[in-house]
Design a protein that fits this description.
The structure is a single chain. The protein contains 39 helices and 16 strands. α7 packs across α9 and α36 crosses α37.
Length: 961
Amino acid sequence: MQTTLFSSAEQKLVELFSIHHISENLQKTDTIEPLVTAIAMSDFVFQQLQKQPDLLMEWLHNIPMLSDAVQYKNELSQKLQMIDSEESLHKILRQYRYREMAKLSYLQSNYLASPQQIFETLSDLAETIILATRDWLFERLCQDYGTPMNELGEQQELLILGMGKLGGRELNFSSDIDLIFTYPDVGETVGARKSIDNSKFFTRLGQKLIRALDEITLDGFVYRTDMRLRPFGESGALVLSFSAMEDYYQEQGRDWERYAMIKAKILGEDLTNINHKYLKQMLRPFVYRRYLDFSAIQSLREMKQKISREVLRRGLEDNIKLGAGGIREVEFIVQTFQMIRGGRDKILQQRSLLTVLPHLATLNLLTSQQIETLKSGYLFLRQVENTLQAINDQQTQTLPTDLQDQQRIAFACRSENWQVFLIQLQHHQLQIRNIFNELIGEDDEQECSADEHSQSLQLSMWRDILNYQITQEDVATNLAQYPVEPTDYSAIFHIFSTTFQEWIKRPIGVRGREVLRKLLPVVVDQVFQQKNYLTLLPRILNIIDKINTRTTYLELLLEKEQILPQLFTLCSQSVMIAEQIARHPMLLDELIVQNSLTQVIPLEEYAITLQEYLIRIPEEDEEALIDALRQFKQSQILHIASADILGVLPVMKISDHLTYLAEAILGAVVNLAWKQVSKRFGIPEHLAENEQDFMVIGYGKLGGIELGYNSDLDLVFLHNAPENSQTVGGKKAISSHQFYLKLAQKINSIFNLNTSAGVLYEIDMRLRPSGESGLLVSTFEAYEDYQKNEAWTWESQALVRARAVYGSSLLRQHFETIRQNVLGMARTSGQLVEDICNMRAKMYAHLSHTEDGRFHLKTDLGGITDIEFIAQYLVLNYANTYPQVAVWSDNVRIFESCAESGILSLEESEQLKYCYTTLRNKVHHLNLVNQPAIVDSEEFERESRYVKSMWKRLFQREANA
């Protein structure tokens, strides 16, 4: 078979002779046989000889030698001196790299250099090209922007860390190069018309360097350049100063970054250069601990398990690097000892694997036989890897299926045929795997069922990819195990990618990141088993986003298994709850006790429960008290909403609880404000002990006992102070009327104070006498006079839903008397209808802009506003004759009292109640998901039609009367 390989190469060489017009005497020299071998082993070499006839002539005259490599720096320097544009730079770099790589392939194919010599020379070539390119670009940038300097006037330079195999001088034939850019000090450029700061200068230099190396032009590329190993990965700055880099590795550096830094080399390293010396000293403590660091074993074991799962996930079993007994396992063995003992045994603080290996025997960490086994296996695998990649200058570590390529591998490894090669390969891999398992091994796993193993594997697969380097391919592979629509894969990837790019910038800390690493797989595994995964995923990630710097909460989610299922249920049903928990993570505590979330406080106990909750706060700490009020409200709303979502309470009861909660908080706010104001001004002199003579009236939804989750509070303040009364017992005496004004202002400010826990309630005071132009607080006498003599019809409508929500029983009775007297006043029915219809028309014109086919549950005709207007009309029109209809402030009981009074039939009353509660129930649940109160018009067409018919019957009948 190999005969075919070489005969084909001979034909290709003849073709080259013909194309390049090579004389016959050159076609019969001793250089022909090695030339045929080089072409036989590499299509890349043949392509370069086609493109560069001078290279063919050079090889026909002189066989390439390894010693040529020492000329890299001088040769490239001379070539770059001749150019004056970046375009020319790109062309020269590509031609030079291809020419020199072809020479190294020639040497490799003809056994003129060992595998170690090849990968060391490949690394030297890359380092030379990178540094020469940097220096050429640096000079050009200095001409444009000036020279970067620090505050001491010292010139700054771009230092490049070569990572991975480049740093270890172990580069593959077609490796990517992993780089990190850094510079010593902040400062700015000098010597140009306009200075720029050093970070901008070096960022531009870094960008140009990457482009020079990585961009694919007509001449090809130089090196695929990977910058993802830098601090914060792709989200981080391209170039960091020494101090920024030091901060990152001290505060956020992770085990895999320690592992990567073992190989880090300052390209062009010169320890007489103070910057090189400082950078090396700065990084050493991060990589090498002073003590024996056995925790590294577990970290490396987990890294290897991750790679093993990647092999399984991507079908890489024939990968000589990542597969069992592959190159990576040899690297893991050596770097495990470096991470554990490198801090104490300084001879291990070296980048080259083959340099470190013998020291492991010296330190009695491995036997001489194990060292020899690992070295021979490693060099065998590297020979295979380089041969594979030299075929087409492609990065691959997978054994070929092509027969010709199999022949090439067998020839390179001096095997008689492919089958013999496979036996040799398996021998090396088995020996490496045995040593790896003996030293690093796998966790001792308890026996588990097939299902448990499958679940554990699935969680591990998620753990591997849930980071800022996540790819769409990885997401798709993992999601294939779940009932997720493939059309949703892209959206899910976008959610993950956006989230992780944000997180990489956060100061999460080592412990927090470790908890996140365990928590996220559990979360996403459960999320993707839900039907509404696209709704749930961003809501849950948003909560985790808000707590990811608070490790205690992350641990709470991880360790308390009962929390996540409850959290999923609530967040899937309500974006309001999801956002509330995200804003106030303390609410997670409410989920710890199973089923306690739907347990709501009895209505009559809200006030006393709140009182007990506030006892722990010092009375003089006003801000803490206000914060506690907000926390109490948020906690109780979570319970109420949970009971709502899970169907424990009907909508009417939900409103009752929200209303009683608001009243309890209102009472606490009034008392807090009273203490604050009276502490400074004393109390009105007309008051008896423990008396306040102050009342709060709730209008709208609060008055109607119909509060929703997002309702504001419509309030009016009343007092009974005599005209000439003063305050006594304070630092400063003021009139009692001023006292109540300051009390009202203080109440308002407490409600509106925006603390870390948010605003308590939005307060609306516009329903007070004379509206916004009126006094903030009125006397009972003034209030009654206004309602009887000056109030507009719409203000009387508002009074229908008014109710005393704070004050003594005596004051409550006083207010109720005023209210019923005002509502029971004789009215001209025709005028009342006209006023109400005009107000409704005005509201409709201003508030209802619903598109065709849609129905606004509140403001459209036939909606909630119409039902409320009907109730208000019935009270205002009939209370003079039937006083009982003015007793209640809520619509449901108003309709019931109208039926009892014969104003409505029982059927009409029941139908209006049904329509009202049905529409309110829908609004309630739309609130929970932060949606507007708009639905398809067909959904409540029957209810809307009935309300319209009642409106027509009541108002048109009266208008015609």
